[in-house]
Design a protein that fits this description.
It contains one helix and three strands, in the order E-H-E-E. By secondary structure, it is α+β, with helices and mostly antiparallel strands. A three-stranded antiparallel sheet has the order 1-3-2. Strand 2 and strand 3 form a beta hairpin. The chain is elongated and about 60 Å long. The relative contact order is 0.36. The mean pLDDT is about 95.
Length: about 70
């Protein structure tokens, strides 16, 4: 019996709109560059502030892709 094998890729998306939009940007890019994406997990998010206002959001996303 053959069992699937996966690889993990970690990418960081960014946005000036929201953390959710940063994840969307990351996954949009991943769909262009990675084959056979099976799952993703948001492992971290952070906001960058200037003068008390959020100026950028980032989201670290772990992606699982089937190998072979």
């Amino acid at each position: 019996m053959s069992y699937p094998v996966f690889k993990e890729t970690i990418i960081i998306g960014s946005s000036i709109i929201s953390s959710r939009d940063a994840v969307r940007h990351a996954m949009t890019r991943a769909n262009v560059t990675l084959d056979a994406i099976n799952w993703y997990e948001v492992v971290d998010s952070r906001d960058f502030k200037e003068n008390g206002d959020v100026v950028r959001y980032e989201a670290t996303v772990k992606i699982g892709s089937r190998v072979g």
